[in-house]
Amino acid sequence: MSQGLWALGTKLEIEDPDTPNTFNAFPEIITMGFNRGTRDDIDLTNHDSPPPFTEFVKGFATGAEITFTFNVIPGNQVQQDLEDYWLSETSFKVRVIYNDALLQTYSFSAYLGAYSTQHDARDAHRGNATLNCTGAWVRSTGGS
């Protein structure tokens, strides 16, 4: 039997701009991707390198990136907070909490790197956002 995890119940929480270190769950997320980061390669290939391969060492890591699509809820305060972060160009704290037995939580500071909405007459009013981590993320268990 598979040990896979059903994604339903995974939460994205953002810091309340009026109450630091207080988090609110972002409502009605449809899809969410969590790229935990990438690392640059530093090319050290030189005329003494053994052919036919290049030589690399690891470079700086780029922090996490979260992309998500959500149903727009007019007047929702948490969605308005996200838009306010976009307008103020302010970093904020983020948590991703998995719905598993350990309640694995990834926490980091981020800024809103992209934000858009779609208005399709035949579909729901949807929003898309990308959160860019400003440093390392921290993993913990227990939901906080």
Number of helices: 1
Shape: globular
Structural class: mainly beta
| N- to C-terminal distance | 30 Å
Q: Could you give the order of the helices and strands?
A: EEEEEEHEEEE
Question: Can you describe what's shown?
Answer:
By secondary structure, this protein is mainly β. It has a single domain, classed as Factor Xa Inhibitor. Helix content is 8%, strand content 47%. It is built from one helix and ten strands. The strands form two sheets. Strands 1, 2, 3, 6, 7, 8, 9 and 10 form an eight-stranded antiparallel beta sheet that branches. Strand 7 and strand 8 (105-119) form a beta hairpin.
Describe this structure in a few short sentences.
The chain has one helix at 77-88, and strands at 11-15, 23-25, 29-35, 38-43, 56-62, 65-71, 92-97, 105-119, 125-133, 138-140. It is mostly beta strands.
